[in-house]
Amino acid sequence: MDGLDHPVSIQTYQVQRNKLKLLYPAVVNHTPQAAQHAMNTTIVNAVNKQLREQGYPKNPLTDVTAYFELKTNERNVLSLTLWNYAFSGGAHGLTIQHGLTFNTETGKDYALKELFKPNSDYIGKLSALIQAELKTRDIPLLVDFKAIRPDQDFYIADKSLVIFFQVYELAAYVYGFLYFPISVYALQDIIEEDSPLGKMLY
């Protein structure tokens, strides 16, 4: 197991401007350098994309607070979520959240489908598990949930794949983000072993 568990060092950077309070992570002192560069570039691009989506700085009324949460930092896997809360007046602001999951040896950022074997029906399997959970939780939905998006938001934590839905994506604002943790063992027959999710199996 040696060498598997080395976490990467994360430094938090702070940006404070008028109507913007931003904390974002960067991987530091990491080799290979190319992997560090790839991860940091992906993180910065994702942070900037969220700012644009929330109307900053175009809308002068928009006040933004952004931060991040680390979910996994072991076994050459780094999984985190970027949060962005924007308030432009009105009853309440809106928070958006984006998950990023990297192989820290290569710096590659994984899409949901890349966690699974090619041609496996990961959408069907995950959707069925989420559908059952929705029934159990008895959450009134805004839409008739049929299936996840092929690029549904996710992160990896505690030997689980956590699929999540944005505010308003499935349910009313009061329910916030909806999270569905799914054990890697429930998915192990379709998991791509070399993927960050595959590394959680052992």
The number of helical runs is 2
From the spread of the alpha carbons, the general shape counts as flat
Q: Oligomeric form of this entry?
A: single chain
Number of strands: 8
Kindly, what is the distance between the CA atoms of the first and last residues, rounded to a whole number of angstroms?
10 Å
In order across it, which strands form the biggest sheet?
1-2-3-4-5
Provide the helix percentage.
Answer: 10-25%
- Poorly predicted regions: none
Major β-sheet annotation: 5 strands, mixed
What do these coordinates show?
The structure is a single chain. The chain is of the alpha+beta class. It is 18% helix and 34% strand. A 5-stranded mixed sheet has the order 1-2-3-4-5, covered by helices on one side. Strands 6-7-8 form a 3-stranded antiparallel sheet, covered by helices on one side. The chain is flat and about 50 Å long. The chain starts with 8 loop residues before the first strand and ends in a 19-residue tail after the last strand.
Which short descriptors sum up this protein?
about 200 residues, 8 strands, about 20% helix, flat
Concise summary:
With 202 residues, this protein is an alpha+beta fold.
Topology:
Layout: E1 9-17, E2 20-28, H1 33-53, E3 63-74, E4 77-87, E5 94-103, H2 122-137, E6 153-157, E7 160-165, E8 178-183
Parallel strand pairs: 2-3
Antiparallel strand pairs: 1-2, 3-4, 4-5, 6-7, 7-8
